[in-house]
């Protein structure tokens, strides 16, 4: 049951504090410093740095900046921490333009500010680390949903690609990993911040009458629990191997340009690059340098010409696929009618040609389609680079290829829980992520996206194969280990032996239920805290 703490934190800025405590003038600068350093530490937890322990430490510092403040101050401190975190974490957006980068960060920071404002009264409740972690999950859910389809990038869980926290993904998906990290952070913060920690009765008896002993236990217990949260994952059962494998060829063909003009000006260069690398793979197989693949995967946008409408493109693809001799997954942008297009994962058979396909469902706003099109095109000339407007698909990406049914996921979609989950539920194994990071090559986007693939592998007990135009192409085992990967901006190819797993994890089976439970828990605690705060205020006015 949610109860109030025995010693709630005082509201910052109270008149008596300044008179009684000479150091009170340093409280606000200290809060600002804690928020900023916490945001910076949280950034350091994400790839390419990948210092994962900085995630709970960073969130703990942010909590320290918020603890004991009123909602208004908590909101702007939360905004500050988010800005320090997201500006470098989303620096890859600068390729599109600094204005877009700033607008995106400014918008996303609002979610952190709202969460911080809700958290301010929650710190007055017993067990507040639990309720705060629930609020954090609620915040990440909200910003994954709105505006214009949401932006689920840079969730705390995505800093935990291969860490002690990662196995929680198999129980409750990405939200449970975020919850576990944030809970550890709250417990660490509680050990430092709580002036008089309330001990469970059994520990109170152990402490006896010694207040010093009680204080030590009161601080040691939250630290022990914070360490126990990731340690518990070592006791979780791991799905076993099922004795079935498939050889997957991965092709990375590279592109001629950089930035927003990565595909270059000359038609079919990208297509020829990937067709040539596919033929090089076929030759390596004939020479005995690589094992024969059962299927081959090319990246998103591996053809820059629509093979349905262009005979030249169709012939180049057919020639390369016939040479390698196995079903090949081609990434193409294809025309839909006269004004629209689809980002498509297209199965190409060496004999029958183009066959089954999957159309990308989660589209990139301002990259694949233009929200509020008339207004945006009138204000920003750059928005015209989108060209034809993409339309989303409405079916999961289960595609039969040779001996397996792959789960096709396109680039940006790997960040969306529901899209990946429904593809696995439809029978996709292994998961195949076709991606085009050419515009963001050598930024922090490719390593961040690879960390997402690591979480998805553990979440669904599936191997993940990533084919990227410029990198990072990779193979991730079902336990989240990166077994092979390419360098960026170079042509490359390989054949990897991938386990085929069919056993579903708890996370795959229950879907979004853990996330909803955690969100409701956090929201309910915030509601109770606000209600009790109002009651307390009413009593104080009546007593006065």
UniProtKB/TrEMBL annotation:
One GO BP annotation of this record: lipoprotein biosynthetic process
Localisation per UniProt entry: Cell membrane
This protein's UniProt keywords: Acyltransferase, Cell membrane, Lipoprotein, Membrane, Transferase, Transmembrane, Transmembrane helix
Coiled-coil residue spans: none
Associated pathway: Protein modification; lipoprotein biosynthesis (N-acyl transfer)
EC number: 2.3.1.269
Any GO molecular function: N-acyltransferase activity
Domain CN hydrolase: 246-500
Cellular component GO terms held in the UniProt record: plasma membrane
Pfam families, per database record: CN_hydrolase (PF00795), LNT_N (PF20154)
Enzyme class label: transferase
Entries under HAMAP family matching the protein: Lnt
Protein's name according to its UniProt entry: Apolipoprotein N-acyltransferase
Organism: Nonomuraea fuscirosea
Lineage: Bacteria, Bacillati, Actinomycetota, Actinomycetes, Streptosporangiales
Record gene name: lnt
